[in-house]
Amino acid sequence: MSSQEESGPGVGTLLINWALEYDTQKIVHIKNKTIGLLNRLIQLAIIGYIIGYAIIYKKGYQSTDDVISSVTTKVKGVIYTNITDWPDLLITDTTPYNRIWDVSDYVIPPQESDAFFVMTNMIITPDQQRGQCPEDPKIANVACDPKVPSDCKKGERVINGNGVRTGKCVPYHFPNGTTTDTCEIDAWCPVEYDMNPTNVTAVLNESERFTVLIKNTATYSKFHFSKRNILESSNTSYLKGCMYNNHLDRFCPIFKLGDIIDATGEDYNALAYSGGVIAISINWDCNLDYNWDDCTPVYTFARLDNKNAKLAKGYNFRFSNFYQDANGTDTRTLFKAYGIMFKVIVTGTAGKFDFVPLMLNIGSGLALLTIATSACDIIVCYVMKGHAYYKKKKYLNVQSGADNDPDYENFS
Amino acid sequence: MSSQEESGPGVGTLLINWALEYDTQKIVHIKNKTIGLLNRLIQLAIIGYIIGYAIIYKKGYQSTDDVISSVTTKVKGVIYTNITDWPDLLITDTTPYNRIWDVSDYVIPPQESDAFFVMTNMIITPDQQRGQCPEDPKIANVACDPKVPSDCKKGERVINGNGVRTGKCVPYHFPNGTTTDTCEIDAWCPVEYDMNPTNVTAVLNESERFTVLIKNTATYSKFHFSKRNILESSNTSYLKGCMYNNHLDRFCPIFKLGDIIDATGEDYNALAYSGGVIAISINWDCNLDYNWDDCTPVYTFARLDNKNAKLAKGYNFRFSNFYQDANGTDTRTLFKAYGIMFKVIVTGTAGKFDFVPLMLNIGSGLALLTIATSACDIIVCYVMKGHAYYKKKKYLNVQSGADNDPDYENFS
Amino acid sequence: MSSQEESGPGVGTLLINWALEYDTQKIVHIKNKTIGLLNRLIQLAIIGYIIGYAIIYKKGYQSTDDVISSVTTKVKGVIYTNITDWPDLLITDTTPYNRIWDVSDYVIPPQESDAFFVMTNMIITPDQQRGQCPEDPKIANVACDPKVPSDCKKGERVINGNGVRTGKCVPYHFPNGTTTDTCEIDAWCPVEYDMNPTNVTAVLNESERFTVLIKNTATYSKFHFSKRNILESSNTSYLKGCMYNNHLDRFCPIFKLGDIIDATGEDYNALAYSGGVIAISINWDCNLDYNWDDCTPVYTFARLDNKNAKLAKGYNFRFSNFYQDANGTDTRTLFKAYGIMFKVIVTGTAGKFDFVPLMLNIGSGLALLTIATSACDIIVCYVMKGHAYYKKKKYLNVQSGADNDPDYENFS
């Protein structure tokens, strides 16, 4: 045998020989109840993890695709407000607040991708024009004495205020008739009187009865799957009359704003009074190995901003409607709008059987099985009674220095 | 030898010995054509998978970065509409529709991040003021008999309607001169007559000739790579005259709306009539191991909402322009705007050679090679002719009970 | 022994035997300084990589969660502009530019999710009405000769222009008094004179003093962790007076626009003049194994669009305020608005100790250790002095043909 090896065969022969050989590990097969059982238990745990968790629970036999989605929303509802007789009014002139409100009045801006804002409370300052007027005395550093001209420095901006000082000190008339002196400013006049109509009730607290139709199409392009949240089985009369309810009608795409806020655990009027941010999550997680009809949207609702905030709570912003009055002077109606920002967040992963991920999971599982052997080897060779015996069986000791021994072929 | 081992060397000596030892598996080298070939074939398949799929096809030798992107858009185009002579008109007063339309008329809101909306069809209700007027008879439950006062309950909102019932029943005059009785409501008056000018043609169906310039900068910060979709090689005159075309000019950042809709396979007028949502995808997948000039954007277009929907098809919303009339009364022009919502979606992953992911892929590949041995072992030890012989060669049987045998060193 | 094996035990016995057996690899234990040291070094490198990089540096012992976030913004600031005395004016009538600007004038649209736009420069065209007027001569192909009627073809749109040709050729009066002939168009008249007030300074270049309050709530729902960027330890007076500064006050949620632009390395006036897109990134990467109070936001700022662009630089769009004049004619004020688009991008990953990912990392690490053995095997069996000796020790050669040998049990 050794003489055959020492004769020099050609490269081709070597290659063919190599291709027809098979190397497999020499295994030491130990019959021992303790270590045998331990080994099988560890192996079982690993196989259980691979099959139970990685393959079945985590669906390791599926390839997946992320959802592509389109969302459009349409709010409906109309309110007639007349706050003149409300208790605890903080303002004297309620005229701007006694009016009708429809969707193009309270949805700002009228169109947003994947979101909509509903104004629920506001401070209205009608008929502002550019000019000079006294600054709001609630702003810091604007009180002045008409006899001390240096109190109001011309050209100086009022920090967090409404304009730029003209240099004069003029009387400011509160809505209740009293008067104080503040710096005159270049601004949109008269300046906003930053006071909500009441300190308990949102002007549009009835907006909890508004409804929103959410149209959502979810697409899994890899699986050529596309579906709407308006089920094809519904008809026009259903769509006109239905209302989403987590228990009674989970597939109606029409939501009452009050129901959404209830589902987040918030109080509608409190949220409407100071504003906030609400997430409407639509989840399309689907197992496309099953009936595709079972792939339906699941809605969840959560408040995104912090309701327990001590500072700078809620959400508001200012906007204006601009026009010219009968004399051609630029005029605007300023709104400080408090309201609820609804964000529609569509998530989802679809899975479908695929050979490649299944193989990858089995492969990496088999690699993990070596952990069982490694763990048991330590016990067998160092811990167990009779470990020296097993160690000797497992290890074949080979001394170095063979290179010094010309006859090493006979060494064994 | 055994006596040396039994003498107690120090910990340092043991450590040094440990560091200078090398453990390798004892291999059973089987010369058998069948199993040898099978083994090599399985190994080849695994290596082929690792090199061909995981490393080359999936670019396992690259580290990757996701694109950071900025998108701004600018629509251009102007239409003069005169629908008076259109066939199949459904309305009698066409005055509000005979006018010029430019970008600040039909893009609502004027600025949106990563999206723009083009109004393509609309119902205009000019000169609405807050007051009392009869509700639209097309709304459910508003027909009434003036002799039956209970038909209209004061203060009750009209569901899906335009206002709140005043309690009166008044005549509603259709545009064609006929009359019916409906509940009077507090609302913006007169209420919208919810009827498109025609039932076939979008008012702005010529908007297919509008163009949009999309300015997109893609950045891969990990690789210090940044590029615009407006190629640096282009000049002003090119940019003024060019038009994107998938075959002729793939790098022009100016798109005709009609071309975009064509690329999605939709009919422009049908889409413009009822509205829809279109995705403009810009993909920047790049292999930065190659010439960075080859990293160019690829545009694709798709309709995101469901065009075959039976219910609640298309996309529309209402918005108003607010002003005061000559008497200082709040007035508005209400638009029910149908149109196309374009969403610009930028995706991309760049890869560049990196040693770490290459090593990780090779490592996990080597681990997979054990599958070949495992599979062949089963065949060799249980299936193949002569399997008992090979099994005996592979396994070294060790009986337990050595611990009962003080002389186990001689046991073998 | 062999006779016992050949007697046929029941399946139950076989199963029990199988469960109580343990297979471990036969190891060839080589005492050789060179290869031993090499082996340990490679093992050390792999273990170092696993523990140091995958487990400690990449936090392989933690399960992670991605941030869910809510962002609202509020810009503050007011400017009084009077550009009449500015040098290098390019326009003659500065009236529309001498005015007060507050937040509802320069933030367009007033509300956007995760973004806000601040107008910093503009071209104002007041009092446009729908009618006929000469086209802007700066547009291509609109110059004409009144004696050549074919120059202006009725009904033809002006490409990139403001309207549709009426067929007439009429004189256009430049603001400086000179005159030229251009095609008359149906348009909003008079057409915009597309010229910035100056070619160096943005009209609202003082907007660098504007401030923005960013309210951001970050939530890691898996870990029931939620925190605002307005720290609970701050109070109202702090919040009114503080200003973000990377060195002095990293936790103030109020930012001066000029500071943001400075942090990106841009020049404020240059950016304000032609517009641009700025990213405000808020990163909430947190190690929740440590004190949760240490989980604080980190702000970074970057310009997203390409400032070195030769073509189509900056960001602008057109919007209008619509109203009726005293005669009831539809009128609008057109703004070409240049400005800075701020995008608030919230990122973050939180980690917390978890047993499962730790085990997975250790498992895949052990699998990598086989690389050390594989590498050394090549050296031992093919490269090293005395390799034939080691190879012989490692490999047990088994000849095929055993199946031809009925007495193969004695073959060895």
UniProtKB/TrEMBL annotation, chains A, B, C:
GO terms for molecular function: ATP binding; extracellularly ATP-gated monoatomic cation channel activity; purinergic nucleotide receptor activity. It is found in: Cell membrane. One of its GO terms (biological process) is calcium ion transmembrane transport. ATP binds at K74, V75, K76, T211, N316, F317, R318, K336. It is a multi-pass membrane protein. One of its GO terms (cellular component) is plasma membrane. Gene3D superfamilies: atp-gated p2x4 ion channel, atp-gated p2x4 ion channel domain. The chain crosses the membrane at residues 37-56, 362-384. It holds the Pfam family P2X_receptor. Belongs to the P2X receptor family. PANTHER family: P2X PURINOCEPTOR, P2X RECEPTOR E. This is Purinergic receptor. It comes from Patiria miniata (Bat star).
